[in-house]
Amino acid sequence: MKKYSHLLSILFAAMLLIFTACPKAPAKASYDMPPFAKEGVKLVYHVDYFGDEYDFIVDMKHVSKEIEFDWKMTEPVNSSGNVIMTEKALKNAKLLFNYYSDGDTLKLEEYTSVWFSRAVYDALKKGEDVTIDAGDGDEVLSFEDYEDFPVIIDKEESSLKCIYSSSDLFGWFWVLDSQKFPLILKMDIGWTITLTEIITK
Asked: Is residue 182 within 8 Å of 176, Cβ to Cβ?
């Protein structure tokens, strides 16, 4: 009897090890659009660029198959511009555009900015590695975990479900868990940009 109990214990431990070693990412993507995915919403990010701190404000102008937004950087940068991301970019791009110049009017077809493409989101959601370029060359991005990301929405404390991932170039990314709207909530690639507030009204 003792021998039988011992074998059961070993079997249980082996099964526990197998299940805990499985990837945490479920196969099913979240297809719901967040309620703030609409024209007129402002996304306020705080940037720490190697010691220079300022806000980066995204003013969404058009949200459909394409995304268009005006952007503004506060002091000490004091710059602004406009970005359109095409349907092609939002579907497949693995390049991130992160470096703006004052007055830029950009139409991105091979890049996304502020958002990941659905291709990158889908890979992370499946627990698959995906190669991106955030400005420093190719880096391999890997799913790490799910997290609740704190943010102020219309002056009230809230949180957003996100996918936390890391890269082999010592980069870290937090992206909204939404296949249709994979907004980057935070990015740390030597300098950081963090969503702090969403203003819907």
From this structure: yes
**Is the residue at 60 inside a domain?**
yes
pLDDT in tens, the chain (201 residues): 544 455 445 444 444 444 444 445 555 666 688 999 999 999 999 999 999 999 999 999 999 999 999 999 999 999 999 999 999 999 999 999 999 999 999 999 999 999 999 999 999 999 999 999 999 999 999 999 999 999 999 999 999 999 999 999 999 999 999 999 999 999 999 999 999 999 999
Which residue range is the domain that position 121 belongs to?
37-199
Amino acid identity for residue 7 in this structure? L
Residue 23 preceded by cis peptide, ω within 30 = no
How far from 164 is each of 23, 115, 156, 174, CA to CA, in Å? Answer: 13, 14, 23, 5
What total of structural domains would you count in the chain?
1
H or E stretch at 195? strand 192-199
Q: Which tokens belong to 167? A: 């890269």
Is residue 70, in this structure, part of any structural domain at all?
Answer: yes
CB 33 within 8 A of CB 181: yes
- Residue 128 — φ and ψ, nearest 5°? -95, 145
Q: What single-letter amino acid sits at 119?
A: A
Task: Name 174's bridge partners.
Answer: 164, 186
The neighbouring-strand residues paired with 175 are 163, 184
Residue given tokens 């701190």 in the structure block: 53
Structural domain contains residue 29: no
